[in-house]
Every structure is written in C-alpha cells, then in structure tokens.
C-alpha cells in the first residue's frame, strides 16, 4: 500500500503534465527550426514571416465585415443592394465549403445593410446567414432568437450592429472551440472577399484620382497577406487548398501596388485621450492594377456565389 | 495496483475532456467579460482566444486603418498571473507596452496611415516552481469607431 501511495503523486503529476500539453495544443503551431542560420540580411516582410514560423500561437486577423463596411462608409461609398448576394441563392449552397464561404458573404452583406440603415434587407439576410450556419452545424451561432431580436430592434442601429458583431463572433468561436479552424478561416475569407467585391464595384472610374475608396482598397494589400497566412495554416483542408490558388493570383496583383512608408512613432494625445501613431504611408495603385484586382475578386467570388 | 491503473485511466480520460471544456468556457468568457472592456467601441466580430499556460506567449497580426479609432482589450481568466501585451510596428519598433501603465487591460489608438501591427501577449509567471503552472483563457479583442 505504501509503495502505491508513493507512486500515486508521480502518476498524477505525469497525467497533469499530459493534460497541460494537450490543453496548450489548442490552435498551437509547431515551433520552427530556431537554429536556422539567419546571417543573410532580410527585409521586414521576410522577418515577419520568420517570426510567424517561430511563434507558438499565432492569430492572423483580417478586417471583419463590420470593419470593412465602416471603412467603406468612411470613404464615402454609397449603398448598392444589387451588389449583394441575393438571398434566393442560399438553396444552391449544399457543400460545407460553399456554406462556409457564403456564411461569410451573407454576414458581410448584412453588415453593409446595417451600416447603411437598410432595415428592409436585414431580416432576410440574417435568415440566409442562419441557414448557412445551420447547414454547418453551428446551431447556437444564429438561431430564431437572433432573428427575433433583430426584428424587435430593427430601427435601433446600435443594437443591430451589436447583433451582427455577435453573429460573426459566435460562428467563429463555436468553430474554433470545436477545433474546426479551417471552416472558421473559410468563413472569414468569404466575408473578406465579399467586402473587397462590393468596394471594388463601388469605385467610380470617372473619379479615380484622389478617390478615398481607392486608397482604402489599396490598403487591403496588407490584409491579403494576412489572409494568405491565415489560410496557409490549414492547407490540409481541401476547400482551403482550392481557395488558395486564386487568392495567390490576387496577391500577385496586389503586389503591383507600390507602397512607401516613413518610420512610425507613438505619442499619447491628451486632447483626444488616445495614442496617435504617426508615420506616413503612401500606396500607389494604377488604374490598370485596380481593374485587374476588381476582375480577379469578382472571378473568385463568382466561383462560389453563383 | 488495479486501483492505481483505474485512477490513471480516469484521470487520463478527464485530461482529454477538459481542454474542450476550457475552450468552450473561453468563448463564454470572451463574450461575457472581455467584450465589456470595449466600452462604446463596436466589437469588430473577430474571436481570438486560447487557453494559455503561465509563461506562454501568443502573437496576433492585424492591419489597422487610418479612418478608424481602435480599442485593443486583453482579458484573462480569474486566477491567472498578469498578462503583458506589447504592440510592434512592421519594423519591430515597440509602440506600446501595457506594463508601463499598470498593466493596463485596454489601449486606445489611431493611426495617421494604415499599417500592419503585431500584438504579442505574454502570460507572466507566479514564479513558484513547486506548483504546476496555471492555465486559463486569454482573449484579445478589438473594437472600433469612426473618427
């Protein structure tokens, strides 16, 4: 009995250690070969990639549909309902890939409609998103209660935005916590592509020069890089592998945008009660590059929307 | 001995179940507690939360836009040691370290130009080597509003 008691703490200790290892494996990435010789000078981009490889846990955050919608509004873009994915299309989406991409698409459309107070569209788009979520088995992300809450607050913009934000959070959180990271990434990519699609279609080519919306789109160059890093984490997933090809093509076009920066500096501004990060950046996107981006984004989007 | 094996089997079984539970609690924690730290900033809808162990680090890369004001909020579960977060620009320059303010749980900022920033979150250690390291949910959340 004594010997059993002596060995018990050891067994429990080893088990607890096993637990810690399993617990921390959540979304974890393997540490890269840290001993690799880095004698060669590397650019900031290469340094970033190297840092990512060496990190234990890495999140790549893309602008969410709500953020993109807010950016579009700030850039002075108008609302155009004909650019949204019609809700009638929802019955066409039967595969997990198309449901995930179009859940992102519908939440993005919902974000645009709510940002522009297009209340007549909200319930239909929330129901379309609900159908996609149900198809993916995300039962607690969007349900009848969400739709009812939306209906009850249809004229309360703040509550509507809160509901849309929660919808996106719930979908992702459910999938991430259920270890379905690839599906969560696919939804995020769908939302991001839809935001790019709508914004590129809203650019008035007659007012291209000095157009704030064009600048906002050019700034998405960095987010396209973020998207590729996010998706490349899950290349064991067939849907993501299929998506990565055209998105790499899109990145190649975005890479034609010339971006120059000056060093940044952070200074707390008491007047506005927050830190201001100075440092100018200028992105130069030629018209032909913009048109290439616009066409490629439409091609990617139409491959799963139609 | 058979009793010991039974204990081991049960403990191992539980150890496989608990991470899922912890992750599920992470979602509830992020939604109910961390989101309130965003105050009047609209949560962007992104979910970045993980179970971290004392001494562990996580990194987040995100592009921020010059047209918006942002709030970054970091929350950790009760009983966790303080969580440090450092924000770097693309060249690796430190723009903010919450240790300088407390440690603060939130940081409000705006940018002159859109740029990609890196947020490194570090769970500090209690410093005791006699106990098993503490683990718990850590969430990173962003809110924004128009300038």
What is the strand content of chain B? 35-45%
- Mean pLDDT score of chain A, rounded? 83
Rg of chain B, please? 18 Å
| Shape annotation of chain B | globular
Question: What strand order characterises the main sheet of chain A?
Answer: 2-5
Compute the number of helices of chain A: 11
Which residue ranges of chain A are poorly predicted, with pLDDT under 50 across at least 5 consecutive positions? Answer: 1-55
Biggest sheet of chain A: strands, sense, closure?
A: 2 strands, antiparallel
Terminal CA distance of chain B reads: 68 Å
Outline the structure in words:
The complex is a heterodimer of chains A (306) and B (147). Chain A has 306 residues and is mainly alpha-helical. Chain A has helices at 2-24, 44-54, 65-74, 96-115, 119-135, 144-152, 157-177, 181-201, 212-232, 238-254, 287-305, and strands at 58-61, 258-261, 265-269, 274-278, 281-284. In chain A, strand 3 and strand 4 form a beta hairpin. Chain A is globular. Chain B has 147 residues and is α+β, with helices and mostly antiparallel strands. Chain B has a single domain (2-146), classed as Jelly Rolls. Chain B contains 1 helix and 9 strands; from the N terminus they run αβββββββββ. In chain B, the strands form 2 sheets. In chain B, strands 1, 2, 4, 7 and 9 form a 5-stranded antiparallel β-sheet that branches. A 4-stranded antiparallel β-sheet of chain B has the order 3-8-5-6, with no helix packed on it. The longest helix of chain B has 33 residues, at 2-34. Chain B is globular, with a radius of gyration of 18 Å. At the A-B interface, helix 1, helix 2, strand 1, helix 3 and helix 7 of A face helix 1, strand 1, strand 2, strand 3 and strand 7 of B.
């Amino acid at each position: 009995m004594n010997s059993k008691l002596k060995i018990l703490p050891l067994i429990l200790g080893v088990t607890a250690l096993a637990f810690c290892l399993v617990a921390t494996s959540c979304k974890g990435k393997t540490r890269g070969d840290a001993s690799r010789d880095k004698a060669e000078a590397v650019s900031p981009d290469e340094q970033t990639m190297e840092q990512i490889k060496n990190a234990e846990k890495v999140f790549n955050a893309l602008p969410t549909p709500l953020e993109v919608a807010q950016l579009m509004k700030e850039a002075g873009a108008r609302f155009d309902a004909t650019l949204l994915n019609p809700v009638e299309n929802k019955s066409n989406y039967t595969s997990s890939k198309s449901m995930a991409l179009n859940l992102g698409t519908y939440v993005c459309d919902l974000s645009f409609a709510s940002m522009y107070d297009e209340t007549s569209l909200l319930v239909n788009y929330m129901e379309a998103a609900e159908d996609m979520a149900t198809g993916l088995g995300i039962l607690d992300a969007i349900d009848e209660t969400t739709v009812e809450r939306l209906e009850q607050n249809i004229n309360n913009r703040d509550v509507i935005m809160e509901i849309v934000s929660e919808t996106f959070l719930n979908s992702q959180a459910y999938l991430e916590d259920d270890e379905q990271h690839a599906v969560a990434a696919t939804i995020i990519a769908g939302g991001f592509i839809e935001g790019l699609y709508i914004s590129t279609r809203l650019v008035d080519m007659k007012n291209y020069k000095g157009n704030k919306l064009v600048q906002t789109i050019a700034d998405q160059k960095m987010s396209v890089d973020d998207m590729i890093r996010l998706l490349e984490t899950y290349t064991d997933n067939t849907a993501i592998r299929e998506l990565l090809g055209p998105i790499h093509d899109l990145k190649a076009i975005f890479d034609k945008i010339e971006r120059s920066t000056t060093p940044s500096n952070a200074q707390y501004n008491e007047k506005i009660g927050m830190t201001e990060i100075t440092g100018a950046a200028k992105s130069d996107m030629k018209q032909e590059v913009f048109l290439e981006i616009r066409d490629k984004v439409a091609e990617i989007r139409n491959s799963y929307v139609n | 001995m058979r009793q010991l094996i039974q204990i081991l089997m049960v403990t191992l079984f539980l150890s496989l179940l608990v991470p899922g539970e912890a992750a599920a609690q992470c979602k509830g924690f992020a939604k109910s507690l961390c989101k309130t730290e965003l105050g009047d900033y609209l949560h962007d809808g992104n979910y970045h939360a993980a179970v971290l162990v004392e001494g562990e680090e996580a990194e987040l890369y995100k592009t921020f836009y010059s047209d918006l004001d942002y709030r970054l909020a970091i929350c950790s579960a009760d009983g966790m040691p303080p969580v440090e977060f450092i924000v770097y620009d693309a060249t690796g320059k430190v723009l903010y370290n919450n240790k300088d303010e407390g440690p603060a749980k939130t940081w409000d900022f705006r940018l002159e130009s859109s740029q990609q920033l890196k947020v490194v979150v570090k769970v500090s250690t209690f410093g005791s080597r006699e106990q098993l390291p503490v683990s718990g949910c850590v969430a990173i959340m962003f809110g924004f509003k128009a300038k």
